[in-house]
Amino acid sequence: MTTSADGPPLIPQPPATVTALRQAVAQISPGALPAFTRELDQAADQARQGSDLAPLQRFIIQWAVHVHIQRQQDVARELRHWEDVAESGDTRQVRRAASAIGRILDEAHEALGLTQR
């Protein structure tokens, strides 16, 4: 279900479950699947070691935000632009990029009803 770059989201926002997020990542950003799997394994190991679900909850939030951004091509493109600026810019540009990236992430958290990053 692909649309124009500035059109509606590529897919609906999936439920915040590992299975639904994995399917969404596979569909809209398949190159991120290795990171998804690696980070899921790390979160599961941390949860087991600490008998605490917080690492899995952080994983779900992080990937729900990733999907929220990547399903909107214009927002994803803007984020990639600012990430590039942050990697190669001068001090002033890096500060501006950090602010823009923070705004994008804050807006994604707000849209998903999440209060923390």
Describe the model:
The protein has about 120 residues and is an all-alpha fold. It folds into 2 domains: about 15-70, no CATH class; about 75-115. The chain has 5 helices and no strands. It is globular and about 45 Å long.
Give a quick set of tags describing it.
2 domains; globular; 117 residues; 5 helices; mainly alpha; DUF6247; single chain
Series of secondary-structure elements, N-terminal to C-terminal: HHHHH
Please describe the biggest sheet, giving its number of strands, its sense, and whether it closes into a barrel. none
Could you say how many structural domains there are in total? Answer: 2
Shape: globular
**What is the radius of gyration computed over CA atoms, rounded to a whole number of angstroms?**
15 Å
Structural classification: mainly alpha
Oligomer: single chain
Strand content: under 5%
Report, as a whole number of angstroms, the end-to-end distance: 29 Å
